[in-house]
Amino acid sequence: MKAIFALLVAAVATSSTLAACSKTQIRAWIKSCDHLSTDQQKCDSRTCHRALHWLTDPETRDCYVSVGLGPVSDLNKYVTLDEFCHASDVHALRLELAAFDAPVNGTTD
After folding, report:
1. Measured between alpha carbons, how far is 45 from 35 in angstroms, rounded to an integer?
2. Where is the signal peptide, in residue numbers (predicted)?
3. For residues 54 and 60, what is the distance between their CA atoms, to the nearest angstrom?
4. At 38, which helix (H) or strand (E)?
């Protein structure tokens, strides 16, 4: 009985994962980034930035292959772009903090 229940749970989990696995959605995420010209524009685009989080997700990468969109290596450029965007976020934060810590009128504490 336990074995049957375990198989049923596994089947439901697999079917819900496959239901969420959408060729159309993956193509839309890719398009939301690819239509922009530069990496910085892609990072600045809220839609693309959100899509990057999905395109770098292991389940999405598995889905990409399972629905026949191509090899998972096709998505590696989005991993690189996501890393670039997050590095840009860190750099911008460091600049803001440096400006905040800068002496006012040449005085220091």
Report:
1. 11
2. 1-19
3. 6
4. none
Q: Please, are residues 61 and 53 in contact by the beta-carbon 8 Å criterion?
A: no
Tracing tokens 């965007």 back to the chain, one arrives at 85
Q: Which two tokens stand for residue 34?
A: 């690819």
Torsion angle, alpha carbons of 38, 45, 59, 68, to 10: -50
The answer to whether 36 touches 48, Cβ cutoff 8 Å, is: yes
Summarised one tens digit per residue, pLDDT across range 67-103 is 999 999 999 999 999 999 988 655 555 656 666 665 6
DSSP 33-95: HHTSSSHHHHHH-HHHHHHHHHHTSHHHHHHHHHTTS--GGGGHHHHHHHHHHHHHHHHHHHH
